[in-house]
Amino acid sequence: MFKINENYLKLPGSYLFSTIGKKVNAFSEANPDKDVIRLGIGDVTLPLAPAVIEAMHKAVDEMASRDTFMGYAPDLGYEFLRNAIVENDYAPRNCNVSADEIFVSDGAKSDSGNIVDIFGDGNTIAVTDPVYPVYVDTNAMSGRTGTFNKETGMWSDVIYMPCVKENDFIPEFPSKIPDIIYLCFPNNPTGTTLPKDKLQEWVDYANKNGSVIIYDAAYEAYISTPDVVHSIYECEGARTCAIEIRSFSKNAGFTGTRLGFTVVPKELKCGDVMLHSLWARRHGTKFNGAPYIIQRAGEAVYSAEGKKQTMEQVAYYMNNAKVIREGLIDAGYEVFGGVDAPYIWLKTPDNMTSWEFFDYLLEEKNIVGTPGSGFGPSGEGYFRLTAFGSYENTVKAIARIKG
Ligand SMILES: Cc1ncc(COP(=O)(O)O)c(C=O)c1O
Asked: What dotted CATH number matches 7-47+307-402?
């Protein structure tokens, strides 16, 4: 009789978005006249930029001719894209990343989930709390998280690093040294960032203790504060301790198109084994490349027109973030994030739980957001609104909250 991976049975149900969906549907059915505004989603809403669409059309035409048809992509991704990444994302920031350290993929979710493959069973992971759930769940699937406690919402073998207003959402070094440290800045869900000196401390800590940092920089395009680094490789010593994961989803609207990449520096080693070799092996064995058409689309993000157009999209969302942030402050809320990220994290008023505030906002203001407790125990008492809606709806929602 075949056996299943029993680790899957330990996973708690992923109820957050389905519960939200059910509550919103029930409300809309009972109140068909109400115009419900959704500021809960983490998905972009603007269409792909014209320069990206043009590159895709051109690549589609290439696929239609025997002379220009492209089959399997090279394992690491096409050189034209990896070179564009180095020239635009890394070289200008003095990050010493070479094109053969970049692995093009179909997105940051896959990479942050798949990276667990190259690490052994006995590793202890540390995550910030609240957290993007993929890091913990994928480690749970590979049996590294112990048992889940329904009461506390925590795994027995995971080190949680609370990020709350009391510590300015900056994770503190845990009492037990983790082997694998997940950091994501700008952060989903809190929308907060880490000043460069703080990230440098984490890099030093990882190098000193032989830990590896998995750095998720999916939201780097939203950074405007000068003191905040766009890449962990802006910190000294990061090449010996950090893997960086990036996405084209939030900077260029590729959530449905799918493109991302992971950087594994060749200096990052366990003994004399390069993690680069392991990831290359994993990538070559289990992944057959992001589509040529999409890699050409990704290249176009770095063209002069592409940069201008995608920066305008980011500016559009960040203007929404400003409207939400300032509107909530005017309305008397305690608000975090929303300056270097498209997420606004607010403290629920009057000691309401995250779900009580969800119900209040839905029923009284007809606005949908995301309860902070859905991202981890330290998210309780907080609530996430996103800037990915339309400007018109964002303004309308804030007027309702203030009214
Ligand atoms: C922190 C973080 N990492 C990764 C992703 C997923 O990115 P991608 O669309 O490239 O899979 C998201 C999506 O919301 C995210 O919030």
From this structure: 3.90.1150.10
